[in-house]
Amino acid sequence: MREQLIKAMQRNQLVDIMYIAKNGSVTKRCVRVIKIVGDSFQAFCFTRQAKRSFIIRNVLAVTPVFRKEREVV
Fold it and tell me: Is residue 16 within 8 Å of 33, Cβ to Cβ?
């Protein structure tokens, strides 16, 4: 997971993550990784509209977000 998060940060790319919260619930978040420090990372969470800290080992999956621009017909 760490390598995928580093790539997303370097590319300034949005990613969807599946994350296990402290209470054990699994959530899906759309985030932009800001920095990685030790075993955690800081990201802007578009779900919460705020900067959040996440523990890397609690990330179950990382998927890049690809958004197509609407075409003018």
Answer: no
Distance, CA of 62 to chain centre: 7
* Tokens read off for 10: 């370097």
- What's the start-to-end Cα distance of the chain, in Å? 40
What is the average pLDDT across 5-19? 96
% helix, strand, coil for the chain, step of 5: 20, 50, 30
* 25-73 pLDDT, tens digit each: 999 999 999 999 999 999 999 989 999 999 999 999 999 998 755 545 4
Q: Is 34 exposed, middle or buried (0-12, 13-18, 19+ CB in 10 A)?
A: middle
Question: What's the rounded Cα separation, in Å, for the pair 60 and 72?
Answer: 38
